[in-house]
C-alpha cells in the first residue's frame, strides 16, 4: 500500500474524527496500539504518517474499514460504521 501525498491530510483528520466519535482518547488508543502517545499525537496532527501496518492496527482498534481513512473528510458520525 502506497500512501499518496494528498491522502495524508485525509488520513490524519479522519483518524482523529473517527477516534473522537468512538469516545476514545489519544492516550488510550496509543496504549492499545503499543506506541508512544506522542507518536500517535503526531499522526493526528499530520506531523508523521503512520505506516500501512499502523493504519491497519488503527482500523482494527477503531473497528472501521481502512477505506474510511482515505475518504473525503468525515463530518457526520453516522457515516462511520
UniProtKB/TrEMBL annotation:
The keyword ATP-binding does not apply. One of its GO terms (molecular function) is DNA binding. PANTHER family: HTH-TYPE TRANSCRIPTIONAL REGULATOR XRE, TRACRIPTIONAL REGULATORY PROTEIN-RELATED-RELATED. Residues 15-69 form the HTH cro/C1-type domain. CDD domains: HTH_XRE. Pfam families: HTH_3 (PF01381). SMART domains: HTH_XRE (SM00530). This is Transcriptional regulator. The keyword DNA-binding applies. Keywords: DNA-binding.
Amino acid at each position: 500500500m502506497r500512501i499518496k501525498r494528498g491522502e495524508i491530510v485525509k488520513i490524519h483528520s479522519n483518524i482523529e474524527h473517527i477516534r473522537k466519535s468512538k469516545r476514545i482518547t489519544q492516550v488510550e488508543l496509543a496504549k492499545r496500539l503499543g506506541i508512544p502517545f506522542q507518536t500517535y499525537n503526531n499522526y493526528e496532527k499530520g506531523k508523521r504518517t503512520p505506516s500501512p501496518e499502523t493504519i491497519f492496527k488503527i482500523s482494527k482498534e477503531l473497528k472501521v474499514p481502512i477505506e474510511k481513512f482515505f475518504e473525503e473528510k468525515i463530518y457526520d458520525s453516522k457515516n462511520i460504521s
